[in-house]
Specification:
- The protein has one domain: Nucleoside Triphosphate Pyrophosphohydrolase.
- Helix content is 25%, strand content 40%.
- The protein has 5 helices and 9 strands.
- The strands form 2 sheets. Strands 3, 4, 5, 6, 7, 8 and 9 form a 7-stranded mixed beta sheet that branches. Strands 1-2 form a two-stranded antiparallel ribbon.
Length: 175
């Protein structure tokens, strides 16, 4: 199945096949979601069949909008497709750009719209095994220590979020 995502090619935003985007390291649109409950962050371990960063831990949800899809619509669609979560009140946090090698000769060069959701009660997570192999609710401060101790267990973008954008993305008390 061909998936076209919005990417900048020779300065123009246009639909480009997702794998081609990563092979060429083209800057492209993306979303990241951070779901919090009782001071903990929902993280997910990517499925083993992912074409990059398999079995690594990441934030609650991260993906790419389809061509013509808004990042907000993509966020609601993907958090449901990956973790079975719906009716979350997603709040736009910020837009972040980063570039990182993610293995297999692939590069993520993303312009990411970041969203958070604060849950009053722990939502029931229903993992899609094609997308997610595990999930956990983790204390943010403990997470920072875990990542320092075992950085190879986490995706490149998640480490960038924690190390370079911590206050912006994880200050959920302000939400």
């Amino acid at each position: 199945m061909t998936i076209l995502i919005p990417a900048w090619n020779n300065g123009n935003l246009e639909p480009v096949e997702k794998l081609e985007v990563h092979k060429r390291g083209l800057k492209h649109k993306a979303i990241s979601i951070f779901v919090f409950c009782d001071g903990k962050l929902l993280i997910q371990q990517r499925a083993p069949n992912k074409y990059h960063s398999p079995k690594l831990w990441a934030n609650s949800c991260c993906s790419h909008p389809n061509w013509g899809e808004s990042t907000e619509d993509c966020s609601h669609r993907r958090i449901f497709e990956e973790l079975g979560l719906k009716n979350l009140e997603l709040r736009f946090i910020d837009q972040i750009e980063y570039k990182a090698r993610v293995g297999n000769g692939l590069i993520e060069h993303e312009q990411v719209d970041c969203f958070s959701a604060i849950c009053q009660t722990t939502p029931e997570v229903k993992m899609n095994p094609e997308e997610v192999m595990n999930f956990a609710w983790v204390d943010i401060e403990k997470l920072k220590e875990k990542v320092k101790l075992s950085p190879s267990d986490y995706t490149q973008w998640f480490k960038i979020y924690l190390n370079e954008h911590f206050e912006k993305l994880f200050d959920f008390q302000q939400a």
